[in-house]
Amino acid sequence: MAIKSVNPATGAVIREYPETPPEEVRSLIQGSHAAFLLWRKTDFSERARLMKVAARVIRSKAEDYAKLMAEEMGKPIIAGLAEAEKCAWACEYYADHAQGFLQPEVIEIDADRSFVMFQPLGVVLAVMPWNFPFWQVFRFAAPALMAGNTAVLKHASNVPGCALAIEDIFREADFPENVFKTLLVSSGQVEAIIKNPLVQAITLTGSTDAGRAVARKAGEMLKKTVLELGGSDPYLILEDADLETAVATCVASKLTNSGQSCIAAKRFIVVESQRERFEQLLVDKMRAVNVGDPLEEDTAVGPMARHDLRDELHRQVFVSIAMGANCLLGGEMPEREGAYYPPTVLTDVKKGMPAYDEELFGPVAAIIYVKGEDEAIRAANDSRYGLGAAVFTRDIAKGERIAANEIEAGCCFVNAQVRSDPRLPFGGIKESGYGRELSYYGIKEFVNIKTVSVHHSR
């Protein structure tokens, strides 16, 4: 069975790759385990040296990687360059901080000496998505490898070129053989990989349904999982919000990666008194966005990653309009070649509509009107997801209170776009998953937290 790389801007097949057969997958996992037995004993300073070399490799080939992302999943070239730089940053961050994060912690009890160790688990399977094909992998791989684990990657089937390029980065950085391996496999092989006794843990970024499937199988095998799943991030526009700043931030977030981001703004929850001005500003800014060839530097929104994803987004828009939502911009399937969808603004979105209840994974903004702050908070939390959120208000103390105490999400920003950062923990609650990536917390997800208590013989 072949795994195809298809350009979503043209529909042309870029290249076909043979799927790795099950027996070879087992052999590669065996090799990854053998590498772990040596890598776990490698000094932090050597791991850090290699990780900083990886960062240099990424920067030296950033233009190539950005072009590859544009061709395989439609990411605008400027966004691809930024993604490559962020991956290099993550490598450097964990190179600099991993040893300190994983230092043994002394705990005073009635023993002569008690302390907690943080030791690697072994081979970790990463099941990764297409939307940030480099960043999603590196935000897992940098901490996991610095902790002493090894990794096998099952990437999304539409970005095999990116998957192989990531393996090449570690190879070119002179990491030991098999510390990081890419498996070109379909979803059908994932269950067998999870069952492999040499695989100790699994991390998945993807849909809620995919997360359930992986968690179910990993649970049967009693293996640790970290799941970063879907999101329907609310952006609360309160009556005292600076609308110019708020709308500019909302549009930047909504159209990040052409709207294909788990932490893109999805639901704009707007206090009714702001309605007329908010709609005007939002439509004007969304209309002004340049939609085009992702290889062009002035393109802000490229095609969606696949035609089926574009078709599903249009279904959500069509059904929401049929149920009473008003379309202020876009909403029509373009006639141009490729998986393009126009920046779209829906207003008067109500509970029960796809635009309210489901994740809109594309350049579609859904506006929900509320009477005031309390109703805005209720609407924000009225979701099965809980990944990110943002609050816009001139009253900073109020914004901080709402963000810290009222919103049900893994992260909440005040007067700013939700984003991931190597220095901050990232993850969700409810159907957005569990566990954390990045920061001090992320590196401790895939370690054995071991208690050692020493008592002198009497």
What does this structure look like?
- The chain is an alpha/beta fold.
- The protein folds into two domains: 2-229 and 432-454, Aldehyde Dehydrogenase, Chain A, domain 1 (3-Layer(aba) Sandwich); 233-421, Aldehyde Dehydrogenase, Chain A, domain 2.
- 41% of the residues lie in helices and 21% in strands.
- It is built from 15 helices and 20 strands.
- It has helices spanning 22-39, 44-60, 62-73, 77-101, 135-146, 160-172, 190-195, 208-220, 243-254, 275-287, 307-322, 354-357, 373-381, 396-406, 439-443; strands at residues 2-6, 13-18, 105-106, 113-120, 123-127, 150-154, 180-182, 199-205, 224-228, 233-237, 265-271, 326-329, 344-347, 364-370, 385-386, 388-392, 411-414, 429-430, 433-434, 447-454.
- The strands form five sheets. The chain has a seven-stranded mixed β-sheet, sandwiched between helices.
- Strand 5, helix 5 (135-146) and strand 6 form a beta-alpha-beta unit.
- Helix 3 (62-73) packs antiparallel against helix 6 (160-172) and helix 9 crosses helix 10 (275-287).
- The longest helix is centred in the N-terminal third of the chain and has 25 residues, at 77-101.
- The termini are far apart.
